[in-house]
Amino acid sequence: MATTADFRNGLCIEMNGEVWSITEFLHVKPGKGAAFVRTKLKNLRNGRQLEHTFPSGVKIDLARVERRPYQFLYKEGADTYHFMHSETFEQLAIEESLISNSGLLKEGQDVEIMYHVDSDSPLTCELPAFVDLLITYTEPGVKGDTATNALKRAIVETGAEVMVPLFIEEGEKIKVDTRTNRYSERVK
After folding, report:
1. CA distances from 135 to 37, 102, 151 (A)
2. Which range marks the domain in which residue 28 is found?
3. Are residues 176 and 137 both part of a single domain?
4. DSSP labels for 129-178?
5. Which end of the chain is more exposed for a tag (fewer CB within 10 A), N or C?
6. How many domains does the chain have?
7. Successive 10-residue mean pLDDT values, the chain, 188 residues
8. Do 54 and 12 share a structural domain?
9. Burial, 174: exposed, middle or buried (Cβ in 10 Å; 0-12, 13-18, 19+)?
10. Would the pTM of this model clear 0.70, i.e. be above it?
11. How far is it, in rounded angstroms, from Cα 92 to Cα 90?
12. In Å, how far are 5, 56, 143, 164 from 158, measured between CA atoms?
């Protein structure tokens, strides 16, 4: 058991029979009335977002979760992904809905899979914050079209589409932010 004083980003709690992760929280102490905590929660099973207000000091059930290191092996069919545990070499197949930004996942990529300890079931699969990907196709940049921060489409080696600056060319490696699916920088 924990209280609202223990809230922090990333804390996993159990509420209404579901496992939720706190993405944002704010302690509010109005001039009149009792203090409360305004939170934004993310359901770890289906990804749904929820805003919820807790009275200050209320007791909360913590969810027992653990992060396990896995390596992506291959994709089978339309939405089944196979992973191997980095230490025990045990293999696991999970569906695409559990993977955050699956379009940026390439073979051999290290990921973390979050497990609910009580039910020993996978909740989410998270990629590292940044991945290095090779550009396989992009239109050539137009000379003189650099007055603004113009972007163009580029297809990376995983088949995902990323918007990149005009100076990026086919065959270059770029760093992509997996949380926002945006170009970060060129990789030398």
Report:
1. 45, 17, 14
2. 2-62
3. yes
4. SEEEEEEEEEPPPPTT--SS--EEEEEETTS-EEEEETT--TT-EEEEET
5. C
6. 3
7. 90 92 93 93 88 94 93 92 94 90 91 90 91 92 69 92 90 92 91
8. yes
9. buried
10. yes
11. 7
12. 43, 46, 28, 16
| Residue 143: both structure tokens together | 């000379």
CA distances from 6 to 27, 53, 62, 128, 147 (A): 11, 15, 10, 26, 49
Identity of the amino acid at 44: L
166-to-11, 108, 172, 178 alpha-carbon distances in Å: 40, 30, 13, 21
Largest CA distance in the chain: 62
User: Any idea what the Cα angle at residue 29 is, between residues 24 and 32, rounded to 5°?
Assistant: 145
Block residue for tokens 């339309």: 78
C-alpha–C-alpha distance, residues 188 and 33, integer Å: 57
| Residues 127, 175 contacting (CB under 8 angstroms) | no
